[in-house]
Amino acid sequence: MLPEVLSRLRLPVLCAPMFLVSGPELVIAASRAGVLGSFPAPNCRTAAELDEWLTTIRAGVGDAPWALNLVTHRTNSRLADDLRLVAEHRPPIVITALGSPAPAVEIVHGYGGLVIADVIDLRLARKAAAAGVDGLGLVSAGSGGHTGHLSPLAFVPAVRSFFDGFLVVGGGVADGFGIAGGLATGADLVSVGTRFLATAESRAVPEYKQMVVDHGPDDLVISAAVTGTPASWLRPSLERHGIDPAASVARAYDSAAPASRWKDLWAAGQGLGAITEVAPTADVVDRLEAEFHAAVARFVSSAGTPTGPTVAGSTAGST
To answer: Name one Pfam family in it (predicted).
Structure first.
């Protein structure tokens, strides 16, 4: 069951925090459109800039829910400052990544907020659950950027067997039918990233947005050649910088033309085949909602269609 703050959403959707892509404009547009806007704290170069962004977002979203994505790994030298700003600005939801959620749990719970921990496997899910998080973000196969390997059809029920908090599932979802499918697995929210990358409010450069529009799932490659960790990349983005995704990590990246990870080399999820244009975020949410309700209608229609044997003189499944 969703907490009250999330039950107010128009659609059970997290507009996923995307590195170098999600800024205040996208967070505000998404939250005002009725989904959960979010952004990664590392998109801000300094704590002062993060302070400014948080102030802008709080003023822009009004009472709508929103989320801050926080890197809690020990290599985040700014973590203490980030946590101080969390305590000051009180984002309703904090999503932790790349480390234990423990540093954020006490602070966020102290002001009544919720903590979601992103995890890519069952081991990490159990550790995050033991740390006292409210929800888990299940990064599944098909996700953009650093991706998971488990199917959401397997991941969600496996986590449900030991965790009774709410679940966010993501991986290749870019339309309302995928949102309905995510809920059908047993999740409570569905994370949608790449679809919101190709929006007017996204901070992705125009060429990046157009590459998402022009290409499909067959143009993606899972490779560790860029960061040393498997991630889902747009193959044309790698190839134009001379990177062979099939090569070893060192040989592929170090011998390539100068290119910055994430800034020049672009990630995407498997849902990009559903994206046909760059559109305002509000229009995207309208379309997602229409598709979602169409999917729900199909579920209801299928459930009400007599297909099984008769029971006690009546058709099974009839009312």
So the answer is: NMO
> Is residue 241 assigned to a domain?
no
Query: How many structural domains comprise the chain?
Result: 1
What pLDDT score does 299 carry?
87
Distances (CA, A) of 197 to 108, 157, 206, 312: 28, 29, 10, 54
Nearest to 38 by CA among 80, 98, 95, 78: 95
Q: Which two tokens stand for residue 121?
A: 């496997």
Task: Indicate the pairing of strand 166-170 with strand 145-146.
Answer: unpaired
Contact in structure between 219 and 207 (CB atoms under 8 Å):
no
Q: What is the pLDDT of residues 8-62, one digit of tens each?
A: 999 999 999 999 999 999 999 999 999 999 999 999 999 999 999 999 999 999 9
Mark the ranges of the chain whose per-residue pLDDT is less than 50: 249-251, 253, 255-257, 307-319
By three-state DSSP, how is residue 308 classified? coil
CATH (domain of 83):
3.20.20.70
Whether residue 311 lies inside any domain: the answer is: no
Q: Token match 């975020």: residue?
A: 281
Write the pLDDT tens digit of every residue in 244-259: 777 654 445 454 445 5
Q: Is residue 95 part of a domain?
A: yes
The pLDDT score that the predictor gives to residue 264 is 86
